[in-house]
Amino acid sequence: MTGSCVGQLARFDPDVDHRPAVGLRIEFEQNDAEQPVHCHRKGQLVLALRGAVTCEVPKAMWMVPPHHAVWIPGGMPHSNHATDNARVCFLFVEPEAAELPTQCCTLAISPLVRELILYLADQGPSYAPSGPISRLVTVLLEQLVTAPVEQLHLPTSGHPNIRRIADALAADPADRTTLAEWAERSAMSGRSLARLVERETGLTFGRWRQQLHLIVALRQLAAGATVQQVAGHLGYDSVTAFITMFKKALGQPPAQYFASLR
């Protein structure tokens, strides 16, 4: 994270007053940027304008591709990790100001909501409690409540065996270690590990690993990698096999998916 970003975030306290919503625009330059684990009274919407952001909360990792946002309810510990040259906008919403989800989720953001958030971020946090900006916030929150929820997250777990696998796969997504091999390393039977993964994440081991691949792929594609590069990084035998996985998960091949976001 650049020094200016560090200073800007360190000086910004979203909980300093009780305005219904305040915005903050951030640019990360030339390097991956991470905001360590923290929490605040206000809920936080993390909107990716360019590049992508990964948000980690207890037991889940949430992906923010361009033109989407992750909603993090107030009081929930979380960290944010942005790709190279990401442009991000944060919207902090006072509890009870809008009927937003009580759980973390990914929201598809309409052009109207996006522009309202950007305009609010450019006004600064000290707008008058009544007046044009205050009325704009009312419209923004009304529109935000109707934003569609999308399933762009990876369930994780605090269980040491699952955390070990998640960390290894995040470091090397092309790792094709089988469930039986992971079980042997964990001194468990394959059946016991399969049950543990499904109980903790709600997914089978195969689906869980595929979801991790999807999160990594979205992040790398948003950062500018080619489909060929991403397929190779994830260890797919062919680009076609990767595109098939992507289309099955999101309904469109990568090029069409990102074109539709634009």
Automatic annotation (TrEMBL):
The HTH araC/xylS-type domain, residue ranges: 163-260
Listed Gene3D superfamilies: Homeodomain-like (1.10.10.60), Jelly Rolls (2.60.120.10)
Gene Ontology MF terms in the entry: DNA-binding transcription factor activity; sequence-specific DNA binding
Keyword Nucleotidyltransferase: no
Lineage: superkingdom: Bacteria
Keywords on record: DNA-binding, Repressor, Transcription, Transcription regulation
Entry-linked PANTHER family: HTH-TYPE TRANSCRIPTIONAL REGULATOR NIMR
The name this protein goes by in its record: AraC-type DNA-binding protein
Source species of the chain: Chitinasiproducens palmae
